[in-house]
Amino acid sequence: MRGQYALLRLLLAGFFLYLAWPRIPQAVKPLELVFWGAWLGFFLLVVGANIASLLQLIQPPIMEQEYTKQRRTYNH
């Protein structure tokens, strides 16, 4: 269960790359090349962060961390 969200994000990123890949070689203008370069850079950041999360190299996001309730006792 721990890596479920990271795996889903990797699959989503792969799907977006699948959709974008045919359009990347068609970029000829400098602005288009900057856009696709930035897009691929962001893609690599997303993939790297999720792989690090799957390999437990980084702490998972707050949403994925397990919350354990601790009972507070007040000793006077």
Distance between the termini: 41 Å
What share of the residues lie within helices?
A: 55-70%
Task: Tally the beta strands.
Answer: 0
Number of helices: 2
Beta-strand percentage?
under 5%
The pLDDT mean sits at 86
One letter per element, helices H and strands E, the order comes to HH
Q: Main β-sheet: number of strands, strand sense, barrel status?
A: none
User: Structural class, please?
Assistant: mainly alpha
- Round the Cα radius of gyration to an integer and report it: 19 Å
> What characteristic shape results from the CA principal axes?
elongated
Please provide a written account of the structure.
- The protein is 55% helix and 0% strand.
- α1 runs antiparallel to α2.
- The radius of gyration is 19 Å and the shape is elongated.
- It is mainly alpha-helical.
- It starts with a helix and ends in a 22-residue tail after the last helix.
- It has two helices and no strands.
